[in-house]
Amino acid sequence: MAAIEIKKDIYWVGAVDWNIRDFHGYSTEKGTSYNAYLIKDEKIALFDTVKKEVKGDLIHHLHQVLGDPSKIDYIIVNHVEMDHSGSLPELIDLIKPEKIFCSPMGKKALIEHFHREDWPFEVVATGDSISLGKKTVQFLETKMLHWPDSMFSYIPEDKLLISSDAFGHHWATSERFDDEVDPHDLMVHAAKYYANILMIFSPIVQKLLAQVKEMGLEIEMIAPDHGVIWRTSPQAIIEAYDRWSRGETKNKAVIIYDTMWHSTEKMAKSVMNSLLQAGITNVKMLHVRKNHRSDIITEVLDARAIFLGSPTLNNNIMPAMADIITYMKGLRPKDKIGAAFGSFGWSGEAVKHLTGHMTDMGFEIVGEGVKIKNVPSHDTLKACSELGSAVAAAMKK
Ligand code: FEO
């Protein structure tokens, strides 16, 4: 990779991480990138750094653009998480910046991470701006997108929003712009990122979108800290964030299940068939031990109905079901219809537990849940068909 000029005198200088497959539990089957940006003006500013392990790529790119990285005057820390600040100590040693701009929470977090109160911090808040010469940097705090310290940097002369984690996606590519990659794949990666990282913060995303509108920021390009830069379709990702953060759903059902000896799986298939017969054609059958939790939650993002199925194990649900339910509860999906089913050998508590978890998440529960002892028969499977039909009817309301 090489540094790329994304606007006049503004460069992508980040690093592409082709081989990462597990980003603290998020499955990054296509890798990711850590984007850092450089503005060359009377003052030279670096926006964020990269993960410690790939700092050599960033330094190489700075050499390409500047010859000597120590020409940099300012480092702007939009986000403290280690994928963006992991190489900050080495970069500060190399650059010896005049100032390090960050939010109030950013300064606190940087000191808590690196224990260097002597760094030349310059705290900025929403509404503050600095001049680099011809270009201006306006700051907008975006607390909890993705950490309390997060902020956007907006360059009005270029209508460029450097958006930190927001509008990003984990996808390692040689291309740097949205119009150079497959648009469908791009939105799939962006949806996965939103579902796994930002869904919990949807109310904050709604407020932020309203604030950006109110401030009248003209946005021609969005440069996030992960993935490709939105130069052709920034509006497409803003509109997607609006839909996802409002909890807008499709006429889609997701059946999440585990099974021991295929009895609960037969129940899942019966539920699916009844949904199809009722005209719900977008149905995903997701065995929890065959699908990564990151991919399951991505399907949950825009689904209207969620079915949870588990056999009873030790008077409870299967451990892998507990895993996805714990994850889902934390991410707080909105406006879902829920229904439960499961087979059992003697005690049969799983359906009660599954229903309880969905009630806790605020799902609209349909039916009482279906329990079938041992192996389902054609007759006993009718209860699953009825459950699927009842949920299909609720989805059409
Ligand atoms: Fe890409 Fe919250 O760090």
Structural summary, described in words:
The protein folds into 2 domains: 4-245, Metallo-beta-lactamase, Chain A, CATH 3.60.15.10; 254-395, 3-Layer(aba) Sandwich (Rossmann fold). 36% of the residues lie in helices and 22% in strands. The protein contains 12 helices and 22 strands. It has helices at residues 55-66, 82-85, 88-95, 104-114, 183-198, 202-215, 234-246, 263-277, 293-301, 319-331, 350-360, 382-396; strands at residues 4-7, 10-12, 15-17, 22-23, 26-27, 32-34, 37-39, 45-47, 74-76, 99-102, 121-123, 129-131, 136-141, 151-155, 160-162, 221-223, 250-257, 282-287, 303-309, 337-344, 364-365, 370-373. The strands form 5 sheets. It has a 7-stranded mixed β-sheet with strand order 1-2-7-8-9-10-11. MU-OXO-diiron binds at residues 79, 81, 83-84, 146-147, 165, 225-226.
Ordered list of secondary-structure elements with their pairings:
Elements: E1 4-7, E2 10-12, E3 15-17, E4 22-23, E5 26-27, E6 32-34, E7 37-39, E8 45-47, H1 55-66, E9 74-76, H2 82-85, H3 88-95, E10 99-102, H4 104-114, E11 121-123, E12 129-131, E13 136-141, E14 151-155, E15 160-162, H5 183-198, H6 202-215, E16 221-223, H7 234-246, E17 250-257, H8 263-277, E18 282-287, H9 293-301, E19 303-309, H10 319-331, E20 337-344, H11 350-360, E21 364-365, E22 370-373, H12 382-396
The structure holds MU-OXO-diiron (FEO).
MU-OXO-diiron is lined by residues 79, 81, 83-84, 146-147, 165, 225-226.
